[in-house]
Structure to design on (690 residues):
């Protein structure tokens, strides 16, 4: 039977290899060449890219990809690419069997002590020394019920092992189902047939053109084909904390598992799934299906501990941390939780105490018998006395067995299992029983606000424009001059990521679906309220026509886009944190749409009367501004300080991210709700941690 299965698996592997080889014949570049290119990188990688493949354009031609419009989206073409270069998924490590979980559960020190005591109790229950010589009156032997003690201990151990293993087995299945759902929900912007579409990460194939922007986590390896001040955090792979600037002519290589920290651009996918950098790390960790038993994790933890973008990888690293090989035995020792460590310590202490009492009991019985028989009655030694000594020794062992608390692990396991069941009713999925004990020791829980405590659906609810503030419903019908309305519509439409957009609502929803950056989506909704169309503006000014782009980052706290308008004017639009952008403004649009001087006194007034009240209402304030440049006297775009200065303020928007209705607001502090809405982090004090 095993040979038949082995033959079937070998034939299946051979068939898949044959399909891969046949599919690769469709393209002028092989999977091995792409892997070598992505592993080499750097200056040597650029030389290989230019000399062997004819640059980025040459690689695109070999992969039959249009770098401008992307793939056609033909199902047959997608299938061929998956057969030739693999799917963008990593086969997970096979789950542990139920018997493996039982074996791991029985490794507990307390259970091992109980098993030893049960074996001793069983053995002694069937041993009865001859006592007729020491008792004058013969008594009828009672039924042998001493074996019940050992049986009770064994039953308690079996129940503990079964409950623990069954809980881990069921929760593992639930977590894997949840993991697959999370992975299916993860999408990425891809160009198909010259149209941006959001595809599940698993459907990305080699040859796709992906749109990357600030905050994205790259799902595959590739090269940059177009960039706007693109900078990447590669610390998860290289350990280098400095951001790496990527450009199609200098360092175009992008790796999966790295973060886009600044800028935007387009990427040609060259490696997916197990052939990407994340897939290689999985192989080294022994986390893939094929490599789980063949390779051992020899790579240092430092190279992989911060790799992001896949929850399964975090589980693998956690498992690597939890199961460290013991230097003496060579076996993997699972790290114990706090409660397990305390129970183990208690069991050992009880064992020592029981052993001490048992030894004292045996000594007292020996001494008493010796005094009575030899000192008082002056009897001589007889070999029959050995039976009495054996009985005393059995009494001591019985004391030791009784001292071991066989019900303690059972009580703890059942209580934790009950806690898991109660947490399931609160929609909290607990993977391991000891996690309940860990959470019970927590005194404070820190949570990210956006999307966790809030709905992550941002909307412009307050606007200061034309020297007048507008709130709530008035935002949807602001009487604006045509000039101001045109600048707002064009400025927000152009100076936002083109991957951010509002889609028609689904059947169950009534509001448009926000795709991309939620703050930009709120501003795009404000554009629609003003009667504009951001799609028409973006069609007029494609990304390739931008003169320059200053992308958003945590240091800049603003974003600027420079375009050349139809009348030849070079205009720069800026948006960002109100207090920062407003400091760089020298003018502000009045109620007629004309720029008027803006002084530091005006800045202080707006800060106190507009920005601070919005912040107190829990709103995120964004200032939108612009600046015109004369075509013949363009500045040095690399000198950002002088370029992004002397702006004209257009408006200040207050964006709300509503708190989820199921969140319970505390009434202890009067300003707690406002502080919660405005803060990026919150901390809950748990009064009843147990």
């Amino acid at each position: 039977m095993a040979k038949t299965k082995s033959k079937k698996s070998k034939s299946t592997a051979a068939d898949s290899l044959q399909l891969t080889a046949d599919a690769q014949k469709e393209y002028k570049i092989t999977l091995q060449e792409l892997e070598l290119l992505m592993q080499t990188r750097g200056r040597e990688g650029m030389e290989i890219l230019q000399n062997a493949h004819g640059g980025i354009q040459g690689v695109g031609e070999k992969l039959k990809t249009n770098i401008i419009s992307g793939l056609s989206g033909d199902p047959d073409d997608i299938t061929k690419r998956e057969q030739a270069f693999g799917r963008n998924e990593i086969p997970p490590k096979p789950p542990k069997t139920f018997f493996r979980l039982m074996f791991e559960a029985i490794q507990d020190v307390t259970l091992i002590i109980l098993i030893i005591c049960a074996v001793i109790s069983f053995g002694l229950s069937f041993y009865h020394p001859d006592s007729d010589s020491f008792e004058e009156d013969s008594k009828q032997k009672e039924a042998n019920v001493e074996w019940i003690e050992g049986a009770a201990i064994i039953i308690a151990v079996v129940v503990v092992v079964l409950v623990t293993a069954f809980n881990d087995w069921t929760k593992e299945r639930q977590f894997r189902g949840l993991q697959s759902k999370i992975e299916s929900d993860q999408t990425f912007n891809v160009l198909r047939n010259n149209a941006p579409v959001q595809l599940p990460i698993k459907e990305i194939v080699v040859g796709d053109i992906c749109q990357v922007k600030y905050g994205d986590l790259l799902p595959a390896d590739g090269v940059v084909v177009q960039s706007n001040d693109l900078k990447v955090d590669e610390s998860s792979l290289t350990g280098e904390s400095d951001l790496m600037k990527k450009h199609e002519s200098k360092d175009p290589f992008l790796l999966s598992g790295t973060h886009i920290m600044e800028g935007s651009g387009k990427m040609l996918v060259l490696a997916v799934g197990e052939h990407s950098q994340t897939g290689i790390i999985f192989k080294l960790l022994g986390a893939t299906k094929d490599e789980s038993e063949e390779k051992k994790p020899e790579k240092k933890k430092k190279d992989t501990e911060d790799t992001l973008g896949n929850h399964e990888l975090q589980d693998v690293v956690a498992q690597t941390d939890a199961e460290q090989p013991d230097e003496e035995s060579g076996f993997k020792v699972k790290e114990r939780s706090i409660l397990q460590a305390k129970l183990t310590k208690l069991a050992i202490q009880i064992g020592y105490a029981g052993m001490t009492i048992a030894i004292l009991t045996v000594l007292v019985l020996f001494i008493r018998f010796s005094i009575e028989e030899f000192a008082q009655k002056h009897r001589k030694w007889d070999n029959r006395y050995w039976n009495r000594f054996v009985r005393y020794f059995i009494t001591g062992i019985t004391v030791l067995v009784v001292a071991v608390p066989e019900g303690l692990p059972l009580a703890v396991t059942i209580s934790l299992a009950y806690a898991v069941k109660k947490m399931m009713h609160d929609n909290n999925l607990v993977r391991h029983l000891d996690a309940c004990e860990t959470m019970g020791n927590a005194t404070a829980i820190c949570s990210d606000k956006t999307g966790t405590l809030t709905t992550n659906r941002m909307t412009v609810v307050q606007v200061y424009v034309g020297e007048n503030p507008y709130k709530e419903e008035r935002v949807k019908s602001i009487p604006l001059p045509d000039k101001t309305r045109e600048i707002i519509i064009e400025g927000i439409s152009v100076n936002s990521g083109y991957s951010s957009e509002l889609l028609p609502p689904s059947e169950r929803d009534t509001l448009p679906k926000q795709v991309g950056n939620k703050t930009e989506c709120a501003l795009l909704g404000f554009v629609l309220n003003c009667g504009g169309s951001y799609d028409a503006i973006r069609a007029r000014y494609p990304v390739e026509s931008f003169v320059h782009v200053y992308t958003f980052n945590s240091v800049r706290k603003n974003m600027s886009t420079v375009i050349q308008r139809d009348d030849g004017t070079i205009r720069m639009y800026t948006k960002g944190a109100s207090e920062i952008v407003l400091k760089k403004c020298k003018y502000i649009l009045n109620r007629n749409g004309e720029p008027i001087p803006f002084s530091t006194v005006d800045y202080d007034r707006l800060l106190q009367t507009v920005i601070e009240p919005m912040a107190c209402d829990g709103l995120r304030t964004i200032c939108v501004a612009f600046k015109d440049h004369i075509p013949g006297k363009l500045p040095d775009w690399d000198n950002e300080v002088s370029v992004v200065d002397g702006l004209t303020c257009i408006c200040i928007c207050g964006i709300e991210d509503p708190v989820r209705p199921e969140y319970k607001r505390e009434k202890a502090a009067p300003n707690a709700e406002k502080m919660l809405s405005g803060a990026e982090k919150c901390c809950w004090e748990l009064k009843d941690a147990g």
In short: The chain is about 45% helix and 20% strand. The chain has a mean pLDDT of 76.
